DNA sequence: TCTGTAATACAACGTTAGTTGTTTAAACGT
DNA sequence: ACGTTTAAACAACTAACGTTGTATTACAGA
């Protein structure tokens, strides 16, 4: 029965989890995620295999915690705070996502496993959403929408945009890609403060 | 070594795959996805377990094929064709996604498995993207963007929006939810034909 | 410092996964 | 109708999974 990762007091738990995450990180330098067994991880971390299951449901749970943790850290380091109106904060989120995708793929190449990518993605999207929500949770939203819906939509849109950018052959460097991607997703975020964007005019006239 | 699902001539292959998909579908009525073993599936489908691996890489591969297939079918039945400008087609896609999420959750409740949901989601998003791309792949896109990027962003945004709607307690019925969700994601799609939406003005002035 | 709580170590278990090689039989072109 | 092609059946195997129970040891509060 795994316990939440945030605010763990007991140093034993922190040590064990750090060891497991460190081991997985190290193993992923050389192997693909699907070639790594729980045994491999616990051997390297010098932790009993059964103990692993006290902390994570499975290999994917560990991956999830790792990705969420490091992406959150990346965002925190850059001191990103989005207040619902400032495009530069949105840019920073997009850039961070670009960077994260790039570096994480550089270390862990070739994960042809069918389950690997969607899981990483879910973790990243959750982190983006969380960051957006921190800034807008107390703002207003137009009828039928909520800050949560908008934040989630934006988070998914951002990740989808960055992902497609990333998988485009010979894509522009991240710093150049941010601006066009921002124009794409920013209208979604704008719904928080200005419910009516002009495209609306065409919608009601459908 | 699994073979593509589209256009399978050999009736033996079709029969086997249908049997496997049917079996999984039936098992998911009562069990969670993670409680179902490949053995269970092949037993019910009256197929040898080794044969399973001639068709799918693993359980997730089968799930993927099922979801993609049925969601595509749902879209095809409703005769959805999105030309990049018509909001009603976009509405139809959103509505279909709402419906699909609702029905698929009704049959397969409680899949607390960490890997299950992200995989289904990836399949659905891929299907949405495919539908959008059919309509816009030959259209123009503003600098730094491509029809693919826009389609992917829109697909992720749509799924993210619908998902959050779905998980909102006491959410409005799908038919009522479509309109607000549409106002949220339509600006993204609009980039295909009208590169400059007014929010842009604020962006360059940052 | 002491004590109850809670995490880890360890061993052993049954189950499932995924692979391989061979045999049988259905499908297809001619 | 015949022979070729190719999918499915089957058995057997290794390796990894996830669980269970008990003993040990580290932590946190008093």
Entry summary:
The first copy, chain A, has helices spanning 11-30, 38-45, 49-55, 59-77, 87-107, 116-136, 147-167, 174-190, 199-204. By secondary structure, chain A is mainly alpha-helical.
Largest interface: A-B, 59 and 59 residues
* Strand fraction of chain A: under 5%
The main sheet of chain A comes to: none
Q: Gyration radius of chain A, to the nearest Å?
A: 19 Å
Oligomeric nature of the chains:
homodimer
* Secondary structure: helix percent of chain A: 55-70%
Look at the structure and give the mean pLDDT of chain A.
83
The tally of structural domains of chain A comes to 2
Could you name the ranges of chain A where pLDDT drops below 50 across 5 or more consecutive residues? 194-206
N- and C-termini, Cα separation of chain A:
52 Å
Let me know the number of strands of chain A. 0
Shape of chain A: globular
Number of helices of chain A: 9
Helix-strand category of chain A: mainly alpha
Order of helices and strands of chain A: HHHHHHHHH
Task: Explain what the structure shows.
Two copies of one chain form a homodimer. Chain A has 206 residues and is mainly alpha-helical. Chain A folds into two domains: 5-61, Orthogonal Bundle (Arc Repressor Mutant, subunit A); 67-205. Chain A has helices at 11-30, 38-45, 49-55, 59-77, 87-107, 116-136, 147-167, 174-190, 199-204. In chain A, helix 4 runs parallel beside helix 6 (116-136). The longest helix of chain A is centred in the middle third of the chain and has 21 residues, at 87-107. Residues 194-206 of chain A have low confidence and may be disordered. Chain B binds a DNA duplex (30 and 30 nucleotides) through residues 9-13, 16, 37-39, 47-54, 57-59.
């Amino acid at each position: 029965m795994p316990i939440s990762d945030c605010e763990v007091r007991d140093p034993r738990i922190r040590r064990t989890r750090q060891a497991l995450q460190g081991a997985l990180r190290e193993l992923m330098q050389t192997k693909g995620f699907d070639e790594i067994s729980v045994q491999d991880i616990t051997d390297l971390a010098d932790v009993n295999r059964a103990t692993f299951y006290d902390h994570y449901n499975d290999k994917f749970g560990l991956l999830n915690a790792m990705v969420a943790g490091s992406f959150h850290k990346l965002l925190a380091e850059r001191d990103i705070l989005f207040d619902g109106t400032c495009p530069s904060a949105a840019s920073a989120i997009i850039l961070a996502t670009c960077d994260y995708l790039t570096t994480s793929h550089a270390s862990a190449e070739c994960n042809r496993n069918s389950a690997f990518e969607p899981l990483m993605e879910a973790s990243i999207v959750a982190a983006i959403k969380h960051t957006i929500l921190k800034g807008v949770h107390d703002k207003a939203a137009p009828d039928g929408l909520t800050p949560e819906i908008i934040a989630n939509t934006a988070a998914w849109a951002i990740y989808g945009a960055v992902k497609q950018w990333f998988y485009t052959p010979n894509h522009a460097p991240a710093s150049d890609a941010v601006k066009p991607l921002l124009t794409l997703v920013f209208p979604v975020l704008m719904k928080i403060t200005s419910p009516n964007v002009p495209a609306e005019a065409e919608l009601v006239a459908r």
